[in-house]
Design goal:
The structure holds 2 protein chains of 2 kinds.
Chain A: H1 6-14, H2 19-25, H3 30-39, E1 42-45, H4 53-59, E2 65-69, H5 89-97, E3 104-108, H6 114-123, E4 129-133, E5 136-139, H7 140-149, E6 155-159, E7 162-164, E8 183-185, H8 195-204, E9 210-212, H9 219-228, E10 234-236, E11 239-240, H10 247-258, E12 264-266, E13 270-271, H11 280-283, E14 288-290, H12 299-306, E15 314-318, H13 322-332, E16 338-342, H14 356-365, E17 371-376, H15 381-390, E18 396-401, H16 416-425, E19 431-433, H17 440-449, E20 455-459, H18 465-474, E21 480-484, H19 490-494, E22 505-509, H20 515-524, E23 528-533, E24 552-557, E25 570-572
Parallel strand pairs in A: 1-2, 2-3, 3-4, 4-6, 5-7, 6-8, 8-9, 9-10, 10-12, 11-13, 12-14, 14-15, 15-16, 16-17, 17-18, 18-19, 19-20, 20-21, 21-22
Antiparallel strand pairs in A: 22-24, 23-24, 23-25
Helix pairs in contact in A: 1-3, 5-6, 6-7, 8-9, 9-10, 12-13, 13-14, 14-15, 15-16, 16-17, 17-18
Chain B: H1 2-10, H2 15-24, H3 29-37, H4 50-53, H5 59-69, H6 90-98, E1 116-118, H7 127-130, H8 138-142, E2 149-151, E3 162-163, H9 188-191, H10 237-251, E4 263-268, E5 275-278, H11 285-296, H12 304-307, H13 317-324, E6 329-334, E7 340-342, H14 348-354, E8 357-362, H15 363-367, H16 372-396
Classes of the chains: A alpha/beta, B alpha+beta.
Chain lengths: 573, 397
């Protein structure tokens, strides 16, 4: 296609939105590579240490939207020490210096500083959208900078970040001229907000579609905001506590009834069950409902609420809904696609939990279900086999049995057969998390059947290196493998070292891998960064003892070699 | 086979199996000599250095050491992970050193006869093992003689017998290796000793999984060792922290009508202890009734809900009495004024507003509810009788 005009190619590439498609076309030939790179505006970097900012900007000068992911997934569960890395500042700095016209920045598990936010707010005139998920390192002062300086800010979305709340006036920092807000989410902030400033901001943000408040915003303010913003599509309430007989509550009910556009509801960070009926009128339209932070609502009340939600597609809920409640979900929410059931009792006392019955009921009633995160007390092979038969469309299947090495309580067998049925039946499965008593057999199944699997999370599973080898050999599309507390050692690690360059990353903690094994791997594969996290100076004394086990190893492919911002306790081999 | 013998002496459970085990364990020839030497009661003489770290544990630990002597140790793959030890409780480290004492799987050096697996075998940090909290359970794990270990079924020479151990309370060694169900199911995850254990057979053939017993008691057992394992369960720390804060706030509301909970005491005539329930967990009398029924197993309001008009939750006293004719017990509550009322008369919301405590009375007593005087008279009469007895007694003195 040498004679194909580049303008035409460019026009065709405009239709390519997915970065996978764009990655694919850029491999066709040099001219396609060149056309594609000049036309790409949205870049996704799954591991911020796989590449550096300069090379990014070099290749994609027209960059407008950048998505970066930092820490490994297991950082969510406190397995990665605090200052491991994942700093966004160098990226902001480089883009500012090179004159990138950045409009959108989306970060996940990165360390963001106030200086970074300040720099961001000042450097990019057209900056519109900041989305931070599970990040940390900044305070409300950084948010104040964003609010003050980003004149065309459309989206400020803070999801589950650890933010130091200085209880400042960051909300007041939005200038009076700022009317561009479309989405504002500050639910994760712990401190008070200036309610008057919030109300004024809401009043002038006529384009607002998505609003998620934090727990400090009382029902009264919510009522006032809703009265002025009936066009909301996505609402996260703050505190939902009020005297049902009060005037405030009556006004809230009136306001809610006018919000015919709300499709997504979340929040209820503090909730009085008697106030829930206020939302019944909008339940009919809901496609997304997130009650996973709404503690104190009894199963029966949840059931009453769910009965109104016939169009629900995505449901995040606490396990106090019980198996019975899940049965109601199954019979009411026929359009359900994604379900997440979180444990309400983190200490595993066992009551108010869900079991395999609930999951089976859901699978029977909701054939469109394709994404699941399910925390339960127990699971049986029979149930999993039934679920696999009922729902062959799973793309994400994450099962967490709170007690992670118990077998099927009915047959006393490991759960190999159950998970085997899942991978066999769900041919499109991309993400899988295992739990329960599992032997090498389950990995055999995964290697054999899970052809589309991209991410696998393993804990307390397997008997021998064979397990891990089955997965590495069989799952051709594997991108991320994370393993904790499983008996996989050097043999599994070193048998197929080339595999890791086809993957984004591998995490192994509390396994049988030794320092010597990691060193060997690092030597053989120069384009892998093999990092050992050496907490508590366990290996300081004997850094040359190759036989000692490595507590935490994280390796990832990288085009730019070892990172230079690693703290002392991270050794890159 | 020290452990079984200790068990025998201690509680006499599983005697037969123990004997069988020991008999069939005859192949453990080299153990034989040590077995004769065993002196369970005198295990204090244990000279192994390991014992020091477990000195806090009762003599059962010493029996473990005897095990070492009996070479029932089976090479636990990768059992040497000293760097894990510091992370665990004191006992853990002690146990860790003892680890070799615990036969788990057919060992590589061919001592297959004693493929007994004390559940706490493991070449790696098992789940229970990583629970730092089981320092509390340390005693339980190795105390009192009884414990469980499993003889791998995969070994044809070895019998399938299982010696059962009993532990104080719900302590239990990882029962994952039990081939025979037993009455006292130890809880796997919660009270497992620090052995870097894999709560399951680590046999490479993996067949023994068939005999694995679940710690299905985990839900019923008091969660003794509730220390959280790092990284498990896989819940985002943000979520954990948020829920922890909210639930703390909820717990502070006790007995007061509030958004969160409304706990009231429930007593029952004849029951040795009271219970507490959260009235906000229910929205109709029927739910309360069935919950109490489950709790006390002998109370029933019956089908009162079906007697009322649809949607009405009130029960007339006469209807309730009708239902109760077949039932031995009645549910009553003490209201704000201190009066004892029959449950079911008023709308639910009103009921939970005024209820201070609940009492399950014998219906024979309840019939007399309307007539307080009768009860008072009866009580006085009792007092009089008692007084008379006392005075008689004093007279005789």
């Amino acid at each position: 296609m040498n004679y194909f005009p580049e303008e035409v190619l460019e026009h065709v590439f405009d239709f390519l939105k997915s970065h996978r498609d764009r990655n694919a076309v850029s491999l066709v030939c040099k001219s396609w590579y060149r056309v594609e790179r000049f036309s790409r505006e949205r870049v996704f970097i799954g591991n911020c240490y796989a590449i550096n900012p300069d090379r990014l900007i070099e290749r994609f000068p027209r960059l407008r939207s950048l998505t970066l992911k930092g820490k490994p997934h297991f950082a969510d569960f406190n397995l990665v020490p605090h200052d491991w890395g994942g700093f966004v500042y160098p990226w902001i700095d480089a883009m500012a210096k090179r004159g990138v016209n950045l409009e959108e920045l989306r970060l996940k598990r990165m360390v963001v500083s106030d200086e970074g936010l300040e720099l961001l707010s000042r450097s990019f005139v057209n900056f519109k959208s900041l989305i931070l998920v599970s990040c940390e390192g900044f305070t409300t002062d950084g948010l104040a900078a964003i609010a003050s300086n980003c004149r065309f800010l459309r989206e400020l979305d803070l999801q589950e970040n650890e933010v130091e709340d200085h209880r400042g006036q960051w909300l007041s920092c939005f200038p009076d001229s700022c009317t561009s807000l479309v989405s504002l989410n500050f639910a994760c902030l712990k401190g008070e907000v200036n309610l008057a400033a919030l109300e004024r901001l809401m009043a002038r943000s006529c384009n607002l579609r998505s609003l998620k408040l934090n727990h400090a915003v009382p029902l009264d303010t919510l009522q006032k905001i809703l009265a002025q913003a009936p066009q909301l599509v996505d609402l996260g309430t703050g505190s939902f506590v009020s005297d049902p007989d009060s005037e405030t509550f009556r006004r809230l009910r009136t306001a809610i009834q006018k919000c015919a556009s709300i499709k997504s509801l979340s929040g209820f960070l503090e909730v009085a069950p008697c106030c829930l009926p206020a939302i019944y009128p909008i339940c009919l339209n809901l496609t997304t409902l997130n009650l996973s932070y709404a503690q104190g609502i009894h199963g029966s009340e949840l059931i009453k609420l769910i009965r109104h939600c016939g169009k629900l597609q995505r449901l995040w809920i606490l396990d106090c809904i019980g198996d019975k409640g899940l049965g109601v979900v199954a019979s009411t929410c026929k359009e359900l696609q994604e379900l997440r059931v979180f444990p309400s009792d983190l200490h595993g006392d066992g009551h108010a939990a869900v079991t395999e019955e609930g999951l089976v009921a859901i699978s029977a009633g909701c054939p469109k279900l394709h994404s699941l995160l399910y925390f339960c007390q127990q699971m049986t092979n029979a149930a999993l086999i039934t679920v696999a038969k009922n729902c062959p469309n799973f793309t994400r299947f994450r099962l967490c049995i709170i007690n992670p090495t118990i077998p099927d309580p009915v047959t006393m067998q490991p759960l190999d057969e159950g998970f085997g049925a899942i991978v066999q039946s769900c041919k499109g499965l991309r993400r899988l998390s295992l739990s329960g008593l599992l032997t090498d057999q389950v990995f055999l199944y995964i290697g054999m059947y899970a052809e589309q699997l991209e991410m696998l999370s393993v804990a307390f599973a397997g008997d021998s290196d064979k397990g891990m080898l089955c997965v590495l050999n069989g799952c051709k599309k594997l991108k991320k493998l994370e393993i904790m507390d499983s008996p996989f050692g050097n043999l599994a690690l070193l048998t197929d070292v080339g595999k890791y360059e086809t993957m984004r990353s591998l995490w192994m903690s509390s396994c049988e891998v030794t320092l010597g094994g990691c060193k060997t791997l690092a030597k053989k594969m120069p384009r892998l960064n093999v990092e050992i996290i050496n907490e508590g100076d366990q290996m300081e004394a004997t850094p040359d003892d190759d036989r000692q086990k490595v507590e935490k190893m994280y390796l990832y492919r990288s085009l730019v070699g070892a990172r230079r911002d690693a703290p002392d306790f991270v050794w890159t081999l | 086979m020290s452990p079984p013998l200790i068990g025998v002496e201690g509680e006499g459970r599983g005697n037969v199996s123990i004997v069988t085990a020991s008999a069939s364990m005859g192949c453990v020839s080299q153990n034989g000599s040590e077995l004769k030497e065993r002196n369970y009661l005198g295990l204090s003489a244990c000279s192994s250095g390991d014992s020091s770290s477990v000195s806090s544990v009762s003599e059962d630990n010493k029996s473990n050491l005897n095990l070492k002597a009996t070479e029932l140790r089976l090479g636990l793959p990768g059992s040497q992970s000293p760097e894990r030890v510091p992370e665990h409780s004191q006992l853990s480290s002690g146990k860790f050193e003892e680890k070799p004492l615990f036969p788990l799987l057919p060992s590589n050096d061919g001592i297959n006869a004693s493929s007994q697996k004390t559940v706490v075998s493991g070449n790696k940090r098992g789940f229970s093992d990583t629970m730092g909290g089981f320092s509390e359970m340390k005693g339980s794990a190795y105390n009192e003689g009884k414990w469980m270990f499993h003889i791998a079924g995969s070994e044809s020479e070895t019998p399938q017998s299982v010696v059962q151990g009993k532990f104080p309370g719900n302590a239990g060694i990882n029962a994952g290796l039990m081939s025979r169900p037993s009455g006292s199911q130890p809880n796997i995850m919660k009270e497992v000793p620090s052995k870097p254990s894999q709560e399951r057979s680590r046999a490479s053939n993996g067949n023994s999984h068939n005999e694995i017993k679940a710690s299905n008691n985990s839900s019923s057992a008091p969660p003794a060792a509730k220390a959280q394992v790092v990284g498990w369960p896989p819940i985002r720390s943000f979520r954990k922290n948020t829920l922890a804060t909210t639930s703390k706030n909820n717990d502070e509301v006790d007995g007061k009508p509030g958004p969160g909970t409304l706990f009231v005491k429930v007593s029952m005539d004849g029951a040795p202890y009271l219970r507490k329930i959260d009235l906000r967990m229910y929205s109709v009398y029927q739910e309360l009734s069935s919950a109490l029924e489950k709790m006390f197993s002998c109370f029933t309001i019956g089908q009162c809900g079906s007697h009322g008009a649809p949607g009405k939750e009130t029960l007339s006293e006469s209807k309730l009495r009708d239902i109760l004719h077949g039932s031995e017990y009645v549910l009553t509550y003490e209201d704000k004024d201190g009066d004892w009322m029959l449950v079911g008369d008023v709308p639910w919301e009103m009921f939970i507003e005024s209820c201070k405590r609940l009492k399950i009375m014998k219906s024979s007593d309840a019939i007399g509810l309307d007539d307080e005087c009768l009860e008072l008279v009866w009580r006085d009469w009792l007092r009089i009788l008692t007084f008379q007895n006392q005075s008689n007694y004093s007279v005789s003195l």
